Amino acid sequence: MKPKILVTGGAGYIGSHTAVALAAAGYEPILVDNFANSSEKVLQGLAQILQYKPAFYEADCTDRSAMEAIFQKESNLKGVIHFAAYKAVGESVAEPLKYYHNNLDSLLVLLDLMQQYGVAELVFSSSCTVYGQPDALPVTEQSPIKPANSPYGRTKQICEDILQDAVSSGRKLKAVALRYFNPVGAHPSALIGELPNGVPNNLIPFVTQTAAGLRQKLTVFGEDYNTPDGTCVRDYIHVMDLADAHIRAFEYLRDTAENSFYDVVNVGTGQGNTVLEVIRTFEAVSGQSLNYQIGPRRPGDVEKVWADVGKANKVLGWQTQHSLEDALRDSWRWQQKITAEQKNG
After folding, report:
1. Angstrom distance (rounded) from CA 236 to CA 307
2. What is the mean pLDDT of the chain?
3. What is the topology classification, in CATH, of domain 4-185+237-268+306-320?
4. Cis? peptide before 138, omega within 30° of 0
5. 345 or 136: whose pLDDT is higher?
6. 152 given a catalytic annotation
7. Pick the catalytic residue: 13, 27, 86, 152?
8. What are the residue boundaries of the structural domains of the chain, listed by start?
9. How many Cα atoms sit within 13 Å of 265 on the Cβ side?
């Protein structure tokens, strides 16, 4: 019998790709999502990739009774991957209470139910935003946790504190927080990918939608940062590499002898690219010319950040397999597919 892993936000961008990786590694993903920032079409794509329909529950992770019903029905869960958080920096600045409610309460509900039903292993979806604007680069796991630049980043800091405190209390919980940098790309089949509802909050969907003619132009937020070309620098990691890191994280927890254990691990490529570098690389791999303009800085944006991934290499035995070119090529293939579907009705 395959070990079951509960995947909250399982129809989301990272969650769906991680479900594929889990299945390939011999696990049975049990998906939960409320479609707040995802689509039922993702489940169709997953079914095509996996050649079966994974177990799915439509539920809000802040709804304790709904989540408890899932824990009751899906007995023998071996672990949880918690993705179900709001993640748009700009929106969090405008609607901070929405972010505090969803991102904190969903984790608290999960931790309560995990203890009640004897589920001890948790991989938590954290973020490099916990570092704020770092003093030195690349960022290591020992880099200071500075004041967050947005309520979104602050919720990730608080969630990490909650996990640390829960483990320090001696309860039976083994958790690792993966501090993601910037996930990009799509499954190479183009059957699943990033599918933002409404106006995208991330760079790559804006790039691909502009190239596809769905948006008139792309706005680059700021050109006066202290970076090689004045635009923000980020560490862009292919979503399939990120998905694989979750499998390695579970193996790491499984091999840990302690009953109470907590760790944090950066997950990135170890190098940074400016926004303009991403645009030029996309134009090169897609053959498309992008219409873009320079706009003012965006509130909450960090100037530059990229990861030191030495710890991920060492403790997870993990390293990236895909380049930025690979990620942008897969993103464009995914965008072409969904654009064609929309045109064909």
Report:
1. 10
2. 95
3. Rossmann fold (3.40.50)
4. yes
5. 136
6. yes
7. 152
8. 4-185+237-268+306-320
9. 28
